[in-house]
Amino acid sequence: MPRPVAPERICWNPTQAAAFLRRNHTHYGDQLADLFELLLGTGMRHGEALGLHWTDVHLAERMLLVRWSLTAVNNNRLYLGHPKTKASRNWVSLAPRVVAALERQAALARAGQPKGTPLEGLVFCHPDGSPLRPQGVLVELRRRAAELGLPRIGVHDLRHTAATIMISSRISPPILAARQKSRRPETSILSGPAAASPCHDASGQGRRGSQRAALT
User: Fold this and answer.
1) Residue 98 to residue 23: CA distance in whole angstroms
2) DSSP 188
3) Which residues is 78 bridged to in the sheet?
4) How far apart are CA 184 and CA 173, in angstroms?
């Protein structure tokens, strides 16, 4: 019996992603704006970003280590554990604007602490240090995207959007596979006949129309 064809994913093109980030920083300027910057700038899974600890962030080296993942069991109980595969536990390089986003969060986390106190706990969390709920992030993503009239996507689609941006920037498949934390390019989102575009461009412009767009 043939396997059902998976529905085509929809993601934003670089111009749409840039507009979304710009709106978040100018209108909100909150930790979710920096969380979306991290997700779109690295292609990390949202559970990895929500489970990120300060002890795994190395801003001077512009690197972070993926060691934790936050999941919601039955959309209810939160579970903080290690990524399922060894390939997922990996170093991720950071673009300057992602570093700037994490530096903003670091400054807020240091406020009120004695000088020189090392940062601990989750990077993105509530004031009491408890983790953000994935469903809450999804609700805000869609609400803020709707304000700009952007296509409705899920938080996981930001990972595919990040890959589309990297492809448009002509990042080589091995580097892209590494950033997406897949051990081999052929097992990453680059595999298959849709390798030139990991998801459908929701604007209808196609890859050519977004080729020169950038997150500026």
Assistant:
1) 16
2) S
3) 72
4) 9
d(C-alpha 14, C-alpha 194), whole Å:
18
Considering the domain boundaries, does residue 1 fall inside one? no
100 inside domain: yes
How far does Cα 131 stand from its chain's mean position?
16
- Neighbouring CB atoms inside 10 A of 106's CB total 15
Q: What gap in Å lies between CA 113 and CA 90, rounded to an integer?
A: 30
C-alpha to C-alpha distance for 66 and 52, rounded to whole angstroms = 7
Q: CB of 178 within 8 A of CB of 171?
A: no
Of 31, 16, 33, 57, nearest to 157 (Cα)?
A: 16
98 contacts 37 by C-beta, under 8 angstroms: yes
- Grouped pLDDT means (10 residues each) for the chain, 216 residues: 68 95 97 98 95 98 96 89 81 94 96 88 96 97 98 96 81 54 35 43 50 40
Backbone phi and psi for residue 40, each to the nearest 5 degrees, phi listed first: -80, -25
Instruction: Kindly list the distances between the CA atom of residue 201 and the CA atoms of 59, 67, 109, 140, in Å, as whole numbers in the listed order.
Output: 33, 31, 37, 22
Rounded Cα distance between 214 and 137, Å, is 24
User: Is position 2 within any domain?
Assistant: no
Whole-number Å distance between alpha carbons of 15 and 13: 6
CATH of the domain at 197: 1.10.443.10
Q: Does the predicted model carry a pTM greater than 0.85?
A: no
3-state secondary structure of 60: coil
